[in-house]
Amino acid sequence: MINQWLPPDPAPTAVLCGEVIDLLQAEGSEVVLLSRARGADGPDAGNGDSIRRILIDRLVSGPTGMVAKLASWPTFAWRAWRLLRRELQAGDVVIVCSDPPLFYPLAITAAQRAGARAIHWSQDVYPDVVQRYWPSRWLALALAPLRWLRNAALRRADQVVVISAGMGQLMQSAGARTTLIPNWARDDRLQPRAIGHSSLRRRHFADDDFVLAYSGNLGRVHEFDTLIAAAHQLRANPKIRFLIVGSGPRLALLQAIVATERLDSFSFLPLQPEAELADTLAAGDMHYVSLRPEFEGLVLPSKLYSIAAAGRGILFCGDPEGESASLVADHQCGIAIEAGKGPELAAVIAELAADKARCAEFGSKARAMIERGYSRDSAMGRWRGVLQALATETGAA
Length: 397
Fold this sequence. Notes:
Elements: E1 2-5, H1 12-26, E2 31-38, E3 51-59, H2 65-87, E4 93-97, H3 104-114, E5 117-122, H4 128-133, H5 137-156, E6 159-162, H6 165-173, E7 178-180, H7 199-204, E8 210-217, H8 225-233, E9 240-247, H9 251-260, E10 266-269, H10 277-281, E11 286-290, H11 303-309, E12 313-318, H12 323-331, E13 334-338, H13 342-353, H14 356-373, H15 376-396
Parallel strand pairs: 1-2, 2-3, 4-5, 5-6, 6-7, 8-9, 8-11, 9-10, 11-12, 12-13
């Protein structure tokens, strides 16, 4: 398995990879993990005989944001390519993720040369993300060769696992064989709590506050302008509070706007330890989830699954016709607001602040959504099917 970050790193994709690694180990596979480590405590060896870790770099911290990830690409790619050429053997299966961007074509090529099978696990789609972030005819022309190389690699992959239907359509248009496995919640560890039952909440807020929480990465694809506009509309109500827990490339800008515009309703906390995730998610009456509309089909904010597992409703801001908005609407577990509609978002927040029973109802339906189709067991069953199908094809060949 190859990803820029793998367990025990706390990155969201590393956590998801860890679930698949557990599945592989439980079924008796020998697992080799190829990744970076950040901080002084990164591991050099695996847990037991069935897992081995190979570190490409040990970094003080990790690259975040599109520019930093792309700048760090050559070092990772060169070292990982050499390791793959040395390590891969016929009959191996490579699961290569999306991070760092566009490394997976090299991994797929290395697998083919060694007689191994290749699965690409797509969490986002480059170079399309870059092009939509900086829309330019000249950039589109410059990125065209990368898109061609990517599509050629996708056609050669034995399987491409996608996390959304829109992503699947894009991959299929390139000729890839795809399987949809949505990202999932760790519902075995995240259990619903009644609103207010959070030690983090009790430390920072009054019992009668309405807390709209945001937890996780504040990335460049996420939408906060609408939230700021709504906060301006609501500043006369001191009981409506906004809790931001996380880090990412847009955190500093959001903090600067809040300070400059004196939006005292915002509270910022750093990422909390993984062991505190359930308590952190329970701190909100509702959770804010966002995606800039231009990134629909390329990225899906998978934090909504953990929020739902924790029994909290979702206020989604983005494309009202997109996949996240449809998920919320289909399961009646929250409300979707179009990006840019600050007054509409403010009105919805005010209504929810006055009706916490409705928030609790959204939370119950969110948890029911997870149990019906987005649980860990459901995802592991789909992954087991992909791996078994690949093993059957290998045996027949």
